[in-house]
Amino acid sequence: MIRIVTRKRLALLEADRLAAFERAQVAKEAATAAAERHEQALTAATDRAERAEATTDEVAALLSHAVKQASSAEQQMLLDQIEMRRLRQELAEAQGSGRSVFVLLHYGTPAMVYRSREDAYADTATHGAPADATWVASHKFWADAEWLLAAFTYDAGARGFRGVLAPVAESVGGAA
Hints:
Elements: H1 7-94, E1 100-106, E2 109-114, H2 117-123, E3 147-155, E4 160-163
Antiparallel strand pairs: 1-2, 1-3, 3-4
């Protein structure tokens, strides 16, 4: 069957083709714009996710450091508490009546305080005092002796320590 196509029919077909082409172009442009918007949204979401991951890593590092510092501080606090208990016990023992401490004096100025005479004898050489010195009571003022080891005994009644070596005044112009 042969159909005869008229110019009018050809013009209508051409108009339909052009309209369909324009609609396809509009749809293509709309699809391209939508794809670009989706790509931009995806890129933005990816950037936000990467920044959040980097922030999470930083926060994790900071938290780890803070936990280490807290652990270290807790250990130091425990050590300090143990040391305070030991010092309190030592203080309680030292406050017992008759307890003595020994003070190394250099020309009357305290150089070191010791818990026992043995500790004092063992450590005096480190301060410049002769290691083999005899530590006897001096009949001079404490300030006149180059090195002097003085014992102080706790007196509960006075709530303090009393020196065992009392300075003896030298006669001034014949007076005693």
